[in-house]
Description:
This protein is of the alpha/beta class. It contains 3 helices and 21 strands. Strand 20 (195-200) and strand 21 form a beta hairpin.
Amino acid sequence: MIKYIIALLFLSSFLSNAAVTWTGNAGTDIFDGGNYSGLADGFVLGPNVTVEDDITFSNATVTIPQVSAQQRFQVASGFTMTVDGSNFSLSGGSNDGIGGVPGSRLPAGPAGPTLNIINGSSLEAFFIVNGVQINVDGTSSVTLGGGGNPVNISSINLDTGATLSFTRETIAQFNTEHLSKITINGTAAQEGLNFTIDALGAGGSTITAIPEPSAGLLGAIGCIIFVLRRRR
Length: 232
């Protein structure tokens, strides 16, 4: 009998931590719990309310609306939010974002949640904060609308082909504030080597991850330089 009780308790615990998925049944508002399946019974979703589950948005259209003060869609440390073939946008003049729980920070830790942007997704938020690790695949893009420090104690990795745009951060501001927070294919970002940067309007910038020169190409360049020097 005790074995059955233990098994039921384990199963109940497993089911209560099942992944959360976006349905869009109530509209596009990211803070509306009616747009999800898998939320725990009695859980009331809202700004700065922590979701302690993995969350998947597939083929979704999602808005981050303006709410009182400046708040965030908040995911607990150790969990993953996956944006798959989906579009996120700010609405109603929103200055809200996505983050982990207070106290989470990167690169020093403790780390917050992971945010994977994949399969042609585009994500617009005002900021990311509190230890978020964003991974953007080569078909997807991220746009951050805030100024000052929109990548706040968080990190972003871009695969080759991915783009990262700041609507209120100039090239100079990006280099000063954010360059150290960006990796390209898991390695340090180096302009001209693995990313390019261009102005976006009067006050923004766009970073595009590019392939690094292959070892063979570098070797060929070295041989050409050697031959040219010999001819002199």
